């Protein structure tokens, strides 16, 4: 087995529909839970975003200039089925048809996420993922997507960050906050989403036998804050709940023992109906995609209950009384939003996932959120001197290369994000893109595109690698 990045390595970049497209109610699109979620005060909504819906041709031209081999984006369910099921909205099909063709014209491989947080509101009103009918609606939606685009799309991602929808649903705008026993309900939703995913993997095998499909959770290495055995145990338990509960089911078709025990202790086990375990069996994906931004550190529980449904720091507000408590890792620096920067943790995560599942890996998100400033560069052009982003990505790519040398099979790397877009809950001033979009939180300005310094750096990385 080659211990280097392959010549066909998919150097790419990512976005998601609701964070980049805008045009939230255009051409027959229906509302999603995101369109109606409460927004964090002081930050923009998702109505216009980067207006990619109207500017995708200009954007894809820039992606081609950047040298992307692949572009990972999501399809908005409510553009295809405005109410989640029923009549197809032809304008939605036409939009993605045209976007996919545009990518292929430039030789960019479309890497398509089927569902990235934006559940149709009409389905949410009927119980969302808590209602088993949503599983059928999802399968029908995916069947339509496969029928229309399967002749040109070779790579599919099932559900983006299902594990985060369970752990941080409120911050992501995906959780119904009116639920009486939210955590129990969430683990039932989790079970239903797992059933939906398994069926979609099987559907893909059936109708698109040459395509490849995989899940896209957010997976991170979890450290114990000390070598105290109980801290190590706490880290082990949190890994099972955060990472392996989801992936063990996606790959092995079984519930992780440690995570299941935790659910039992809490009274949060889902109802498993007759036939469910058969559906979940034999649905292993072709690859594992995962998103990685930061590692996490925990200690044994201090006994305090952690308030659920927070919208604050995603990493410091995790914890389960009696099991684990989040802790700052004093060995790591944090970014402007308090997320710890840990490239070595990235290598470890790659090693852990590969070692456990022995499936090819692709990184579908990794990147640095920062407050960028548009300034004139040495040539007098407007740009962003985002050396901090270059450093972040350089270090992560370096660690990915080392993991590859150690035997981990990685076939692609797609930083978040191809172009500036709106963060899940921290607005558009938290930027990740290689391309700057000229707008503020509440002033849309001209939405003009400017290539950042990191754009030219990544262009160089891709062209050098492709030649080797
Ligand atoms: C992941 C999501 C993305 C994204 C990214 C950055 O969790 O899949 O949708 O936005 O994180 O997070 P944030 O926007 O919260 O900074």
Automatic annotation (TrEMBL):
* Family the entry assigns: Belongs to the glycosyl hydrolase 1 family.
Q: Where is the active site?
A: 365 (nucleophile)
> Could you tell me what this protein is called?
Glycoside hydrolase family 1 protein
A Pfam family that the UniProt record links to this protein: Glyco_hydro_1
Keyword terms: Glycosidase, Hydrolase
A single Gene Ontology biological process assigned to it is:
carbohydrate catabolic process
Spell out the molecular function terms from Gene Ontology. Answer: beta-glucosidase activity
Recorded hits in InterPro entries, A to Z, give: GH, GH_1_N_CS, Glyco_hydro_1, Glyco_hydro_1_AS
GO cellular component annotations of the record: cytosol
Give the domain of life: Bacteria
């Amino acid at each position: 087995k080659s211990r280097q990045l392959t010549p066909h390595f998919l150097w790419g970049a990512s976005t998601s529909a609701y964070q980049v497209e805008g045009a939230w109610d255009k051409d027959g699109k229906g509302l999603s839970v995101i369109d109606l979620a409460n927004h964090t005060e002081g930050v923009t909504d998702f109505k216009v975003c980067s207006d990619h819906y109207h500017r995708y041709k200009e954007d894809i031209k820039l992606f081609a200039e950047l040298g992307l081999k692949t572009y990972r984006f999501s399809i908005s369910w409510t553009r295809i089925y405005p109410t989640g099921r029923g009549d197809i909205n032809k304008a939605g099909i036409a939009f993605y048809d045209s976007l996919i063709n545009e990518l292929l014209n430039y030789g960019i491989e479309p890497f398509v996420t089927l569902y990235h947080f934006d559940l149709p509101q009409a389905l949410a009103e009927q119980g969302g993922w808590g209602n088993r009918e949503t599983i059928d609606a999802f399968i029908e939606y995916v069947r339509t997507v496969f029928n229309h685009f399967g002749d040109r799309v070779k790579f599919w991602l099932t559900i983006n960050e299902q594990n985060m929808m369970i752990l941080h649903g409120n911050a992501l705008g995906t959780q119904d906050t009116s639920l009486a026993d939210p955590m129990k309900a969430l683990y039932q939703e989790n079970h239903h989403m797992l059933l939906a995913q398994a069926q979609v993997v099987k559907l893909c095998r059936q109708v698109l036998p040459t395509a490849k499909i995989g899940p896209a959770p957010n997976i991170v290495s979890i450290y114990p804050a000390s070598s105290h055995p109980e801290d190590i145990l706490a880290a082990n338990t949190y890994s099972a709940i955060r990472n392996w509960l989801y992936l063990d089911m996606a790959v092995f078709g079984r519930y992780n023992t440690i995570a299941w025990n935790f659910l039992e202790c809490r009274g949060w086990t889902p109802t498993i109906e007759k036939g469910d375990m058969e559906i979940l069996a034999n649905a292993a994906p072709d690859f594992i995609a995962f998103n990685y931004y930061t590692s996490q550190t925990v200690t044994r529980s201090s006994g305090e209950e952690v308030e659920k449904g927070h919208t604050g720091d995603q990493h410091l507000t995790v914890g389960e009384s009696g099991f684990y408590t989040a802790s700052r890792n004093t060995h790591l620096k944090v970014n402007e939003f308090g997320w710890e920067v840990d490239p070595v943790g990235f290598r470890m995560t790659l090693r852990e996932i590969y070692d456990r599942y022995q499936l090819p890996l692709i990184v579908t998100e990794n990147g640095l959120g920062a407050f960028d400033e548009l300034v004139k560069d040495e040539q007098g052009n407007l740009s962003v001197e985002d050396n901090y982003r270059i450093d972040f990505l350089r270090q992560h790519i370096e660690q990915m290369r080392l993991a590859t040398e150690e035997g981990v099979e990685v076939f692609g790397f797609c930083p978040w994000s191809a172009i500036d877009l709106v963060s899940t809950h921290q607005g558009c001033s938290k930027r990740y893109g290689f391309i700057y979009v000229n707008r503020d939180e509440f002033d849309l300005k001209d939405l003009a595109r400017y290539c950042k310094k990191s754009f030219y750096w990544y262009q160089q990385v891709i062209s050098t690698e492709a030649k080797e």
